[in-house]
Amino acid sequence: MVSKKVLIVYAHQSSGSFNSAAKDAAVEVLTAKGCAVEVSDLYAMTFKATATAEDITGKVKNADHFCYGEETKLAWEAGKLTADISEEQRKLTEADLVIFQFPMYWFTVPAIMKGWMDRVLTLGFAFTHEKRYSQGIFKDKKAMLSFTTGSQESMFSANGINGDMNVTLWPLQNGILHYCGFQVLAPQIFWAPSHVPSEARGTMLEGCRTRMQGLLGENPLAFTPLDCFDGEKGYQLKPEVHEKHAAKEFGLTVGIHLGKALPPNNQMKAGV
Question: What sequence ranges are listed for the domain Flavodoxin-like fold (predicted)?
Fold first, then answer.
């Protein structure tokens, strides 16, 4: 068998952090399973977070009205993206699985990781108008968010002050990962490790190691397929799909909820 390739996009400033320990655990287990694991340590790389015209070598098409999406598409086609972007795109092209390891900042990824997404997932390379969501360019790859929170789990519940974590995850998992076609695995969430005893942190890491053993065989989260929407009518859900779910208690997904109750754990567990 050809070994699977794993890319870990890692964003934490400290090698002594829990995030670093989680990253190391993933590398250890996946390598032992025969995977070829590559890590992009964004802070160590001083990875540029801002999406600017400097990401393109040579002249741009329209300097007076610079459009990052269109200009980087042309640069990607011409091989004129800067070396740091091209190298990350190479890693991503080769990877069967991508793990994003990070501390949650302001309910999302740190700026340096968002910069990786903004700059690496360029138009043409990662998505096109025709190739997105379930028909996306990376539909044969898997991706997973693995992150720490500052708040305890109860605060990210449907009754908690932070709101439902499933809602928090929708823009990242649907709007970025699934948009590019990735099969999105259930997130690996480490709840408030800085607020629990060291023994509890050790238990968290053991749970992570156990999950990593079978990670590549996991089923992805459920998203509504692209062909359920009518492209000629503003990508609205097709009437027959709407009618099929009319009598059901829950909506299709967190975002496509049809005005119904959100399907429980839709962005946190596969098979629901």
Answer: 4-192
Annotate 199-243 with DSSP letters as a single string.
HHHHHHHHHHHHHHHTGGGPPPPP---GGGEEGGGTTEEPHHHHH
Q: Which structure tokens are listed for 120?
A: 């690496």
CA distance 206 to 210: 6
Q: Measured between alpha carbons, how far is 95 from 103 in angstroms, rounded to an integer? A: 23
Residue 28 and residue 6 in contact, taking contact as beta carbons nearer than 8 Å = no
Could you give the percent of the chain with pLDDT greater than 70? 99
* Residues 224-252: tens digit of each pLDDT: 999 999 999 999 999 999 999 999 999 99
The matching CATH number, chosen from 3.30.70.260, 3.40.50.360, 3.40.50.2020, 3.40.50.1100, for 5-219 is 3.40.50.360
pLDDT of 201 reads 96
Give domain limits for the chain: 5-219
Residue 100 pairs with which residues in a beta bridge? Answer: 9, 145
CA atoms of 114 and 176, how far apart (whole Å)? 10
Closest CA to 18 of 93, 120, 96, 104: 104
* The token pair that represents 215 in the structure block: 């990670």
Contacts of 118 (CB under 8 A, 6+ apart): 49, 51
Which residues, other chains included, contact 114 with Cβ-Cβ below 8 Å and sequence gap of 6+? 49, 108
The tens digit of pLDDT for each residue in 122-173 reads: 999 999 999 999 999 999 999 999 999 999 999 999 999 999 999 999 999 9
pTM greater than 0.70 (yes/no) = yes
CB 101 within 8 A of CB 146: yes
Task: Give CA 123 to chain center in angstroms.
Answer: 17
